[in-house]
Amino acid sequence: MIFEGLSEKLQNALGKLKGKGKLSEKDVNDAMREVKLALLEADVNFKVVKDFISKVKDRCVGQDVMESLTPGQHVIKIVNEELTSLMGTVQSRISFASKPPTIIMLVGLQGAGKTTTGGKLAGYLKKHQSKRPLLVACDIYRPAAIKQLQVVGSKLDIPVFDMGDKQNPVDIAKAGIEHAIKKGNDLVIIDTAGRLHIDEDLMNELKDVKREVKPHEILLVIDAMTGQDAVNVAENFNEALGVDGIILTKLDGDTRGGAALSVRAVTHKPIKFIGMGEKLDDLEPFHPDRMASRILG
Ligand code: GDP
After folding, report:
1. Which residues are involved in binding GTP (predicted)?
2. Residue located nearest, by CA, to atom 9 of ligand 1
């Protein structure tokens, strides 16, 4: 189950309210203290937690909640709504270009799951939106990145464009787009290079690709297992490059939930997809309301 520890603690804290006929302000405060601890233990950003708790409390007190017939249910509903809002309220979709091909540039640190996610995303959009994607291999630094993309592409029966590792990423990306236009691919997904840490060379290279290629979407791939680090990475990438959305990987693992619950509030960028496993069809569109309900059980 997703965010097991967090779910259990939230259910415990809120469950205590359910049985009560009437709630006092102290009941709500006690429950909110537990909710706050549960969120902090799940590695949710401190400021995000503070704002969240204060919003929930305000609504609990302000809305005649405590006088209602089922006040506990009311509080749970409010928590659910605020969790949903924290994660962006509504599903955020890929915006496709009115004049194809749509160009998506994938960025992120090495190991976040970028190359795998490029394949997953191409496969998803081919299957569910009848797109004809082309994957473009611009990660010329990581040994075997090009080969990895080719393997992914062949498994999905999706073409991969590469020029080896001796050309620069801007030229490869441009040639890839021309190739897509010639071949009738209406979607180009560019796999860029990642580094172990954010550094200036990496950002400059990504900025060059962005300037020359003018992608319709820059999607940042981050690893949910790294919690607040992932959120910091997202903030840095967004400040340096400007991203349009986030793909959160490895949510199938033993992750606490901090990245999923913080990254939208911290960066103001939506999570568009989530990675739920190593297989190429383990990618799902992100629905804030469904995630909130999953967490609250
Ligand atoms: P890159 O360096 O960012 O291109 O990362 P890769 O695409 O090579 O992925 C790094 C590792 O993470 C690989 O072993 C992937 O199989 C794994 N991975 C990627 N996405 C997910 C996911 O959603 N869940 C799990 N469990 N593993 C993933």
Report:
1. 108-115, 191-195, 249-252
2. 113
Ligand 1: residues whose CB is within 6 Å?
108, 110-116, 194, 249-250, 252-253, 275-278, 282
Distance, CA of 101 to CA of 181 (rounded, Å): 7
Please give the pLDDT value at position 63.
60
Q: Which ipTM value was assigned to this complex? A: 0.99
